[in-house]
Amino acid sequence: MTSPTAVVLPGTASDEVFVRSVFARPLAAAGLALVAPESRSVDEHFAALDAAYDGNPLVVGGVSLGAHIAARWAVRNPTRCAGVLAALPAWTGRSDGAPAALAASVSATTVEREGLHAAVGDVDGWVGAELRRAWPRYGSALPDVLREAAGSEAPTVEELRRLDVPVGVAACTDDPVHPFEVARRWVSALPRAALRTTTLAEMGADREALGRAALDALLNA
């Protein structure tokens, strides 16, 4: 019997390598086969979800921007979706004033004017190391990718209210870029959702902490 498929998208200027580090083992332990697309832009992320559908409902998910796109796809394709893994949602609806959107916009300008090293040089710890690993993979497209993400829309509260599939939301309580209040707002709007938390500090030692939190939330939704 084929394992149910979970298609999980990366966050802004992140990649499939990070997705696998977070989700591969937790999903495998639950009997889900992970698909981590190599898509980069918003349109490519939506296309990857469309391409993954083979007639059997998918679990879809993502981190930050990836969570936004997965949830929006699920709203548009309710019969194709079995559940959603939403890790670190960054805003609801329009991105105006959201910390993650502001950070992406500033980073895009810094990369253009001063180079990639200047944009990530002051970011400490594992987050900085992750940016220095993933961002060079985007090459000259990086500023455009960052700006596209900053201007993209997350599902609105009204759309979340229509999303009648189980949704597992995971948040880090010490992450100012992805405020915990946004995760709580998503869960309050969703008809069938649960919230689990971890911390950036815990992820520094164990990336899978975020994947386990999202999966546990989904199983309890």
From TrEMBL:
SUPFAM superfamilies (alphabetical): alpha/beta-Hydrolases
Name of the featured protein: Alpha/beta hydrolase family protein
Lineage: Bacteria, Bacillati, Actinomycetota, Actinomycetes, Pseudonocardiales
